Amino acid sequence: MPRHEEQATLPYGADELFDVVADVKDYPSFVPWCSGARIQREDGREVIADLVIGFGPFQESFTSQVTLDRPKQVRVHAIEGPLEHLTNTWTFTPAGDKTHVDFVIDFQFKSHLLDHVANGMFQEAATRMMGAFESRAHLLHLRKGLHKTPHPGS
């Protein structure tokens, strides 16, 4: 079963980065290979979501359980679908005015063909996922800055 870890120290607060990762419904707009997301249930501590992923001619959907431990960690487990196993964990550790992010993912498809195809792309996919979340955090941070109310007299 492939396992990959990415780490980065980013110039954003842990809450801000947590919000990006926890916003499962927006994954199709920025996560590579994610073409759909439907929230079944959400209660602030857990999200159950159906996600559609595709690469090349393959497209599969699966149900994931996303456990939210604000602002420290987001854990994702596949609970139904074509994956024998999927776990990914995002851990956020404040580092002064920045945050250290640790992203770990491991998975295995039930289908040997899908597993073989995915394994060939696994390193690139994990790196692109981390980059996509980092880019999304940057974009949202910029938008937040643009929407600040100007000080009187400025």
Plain-language structure description:
The chain is built from 2 helices and 7 strands. The protein is of the alpha+beta class. It has one domain: 2-Layer Sandwich (Alpha-D-Glucose-1,6-Bisphosphate, Chain A, domain 4). A 7-stranded antiparallel beta sheet has the order 1-7-6-5-4-3-2. A hairpin with a 2-residue loop joins strand 3 and strand 4. Helix 1 crosses helix 2. The longest helix has 35 residues. It is globular and about 45 Å long. 25% of the residues are buried. The C terminus is likely disordered.
Topology:
Blueprint lengths: L2 E8 L3 H9 L11 E9 L3 E10 L2 E12 L3 E8 L2 E13 L2 E12 L2 H35 L8
Antiparallel strand pairs: 1-7, 2-3, 3-4, 4-5, 5-6, 6-7
Helix pairs in contact: 1-2
